[in-house]
Design brief:
Length: 109
């Protein structure tokens, strides 16, 4: 499963205050089956990223073997070409679900 935030934020309006706010969009894809899931979160913080992971797993109704993402700060502590270090919360999540975490190579699209 691949995951990344979109480059554009989408606007929405707070019903109580009427204020226009912007939200981050987290996109999950299964590249071989072309299944896609989008999830709006308030920020790119780790808590929102984990909430997006859980929402995607509930939506797809199963677990992928590998989660591949860009080198997001909420996902990777220190990027490395061959062995990146992941955040503690993401490592705990992968241990709980029995998934492998992977990150794209740095400086390469």
């Amino acid at each position: 499963m691949h995951v990344d935030f979109t480059s554009k934020k989408l606007p929405y309006y707070d019903q109580e205050s009427g204020e226009a706010l912007r939200t981050e969009i987290l996109v999950w894809t299964f590249p071989f089956s072309s299944m896609v899931f989008d999830f709006a979160v308030a920020s790119q913080k780790q808590e929102d990223f984990i909430a997006g992971i859980n929402a995607a797993l509930r939506y797809f109704g199963g677990l992928p073997q590998v989660i591949l993402s860009d080198n997001l700060k909420s996902y990777v502590i220190s990027p490395d070409r061959y062995a990146p270090t992941f955040t503690k919360l993401c490592t705990q999540l992968s241990s709980h679900y029995g998934m492998v975490l992977d990150a794209t190579r740095i400086y390469k699209p």
